[in-house]
Design goal:
Blueprint: E1 2-6, H1 14-24, E2 30-34, H2 40-52, H3 56-77, H4 81-100, H5 108-132, E3 137-139, H6 156-169, E4 175-179
Parallel strand pairs: 1-2, 2-4, 3-4
Helix pairs in contact: 1-3, 2-3, 2-5, 3-4, 4-5
């Protein structure tokens, strides 16, 4: 099994998603780590900063711009209406959650939760695209197996104890998709 990592530019447009899908679906079982779509993390940093400064109106404006961008990508990426609908539901849940931070007290945990959403969106989008193409893909949320130690390095023992059973549970999966940047 190969581990493949793709940054934001690699999944920055519907066409790039399709190109990455061709690269990772090569007849082997692969583990694919995706970043947020190009520009998304910058927007999420801006959203978090507006919430931190007590300016929810500006945060909401950026969220709405990002929602429009993603809805446009969904319309172009998927050919089946049920896949578009399922993906939009996931994305709308995330965007609504981002909007809900206007009612919460800002802290470091809120910032981290906001910043993690880019990877969560891109991995859900890729997994849904692969499944639409008839590829056996499984989304493995990084929170299910990834943790850092007190030195801020990957906790290899924890990772092994949690990741190996997940992979064994999905032996027929061709592609495992997970997030970069996210861990406990």
């Amino acid at each position: 099994m190969k581990v493949m990592k793709f940054g934001g530019t690699s999944v920055g447009s519907p066409q790039r998603f399709k190109e990455v899908a061709k690269l990772i679906h090569n007849g082997q079982q692969n583990f694919v780590v995706l970043s947020a779509m190009s520009g998304t993390t910058n927007s999420l940093v801006e959203i978090a900063d507006y919430y931190k400064k007590g300016n929810p109106e500006s945060a909401q404006a950026i969220i709405n711009i990002l929602r429009t961008k993603y809805n446009d990508h969904v319309a172009e990426l998927y050919s089946k209406s049920d896949t578009r609908k399922r993906t939009k539901e996931i994305l709308n849940t995330i965007f609504n959650m981002l909007l809900s931070f206007s009612d919460k007290e800002y802290n470091d945990a809120v910032e981290k939760e906001i910043l993690a959403q880019g990877e969560i969106m891109s991995t859900n989008m890729m997994t849904n695209y692969l499944k639409e193409q008839g590829i056996k893909a499984t989304l493995l949320p990084a929170f299910a197996f990834m943790r850092i130690d007190e030195s801020r390095e990957p906790d290899i023992k924890y990772l092994s104890e949690h990741l190996i059973p997940l992979i064994e549970e999905h032996k027929d999966t061709e592609l495992f998709i997970t997030q970069g940047f996210i861990c406990l």
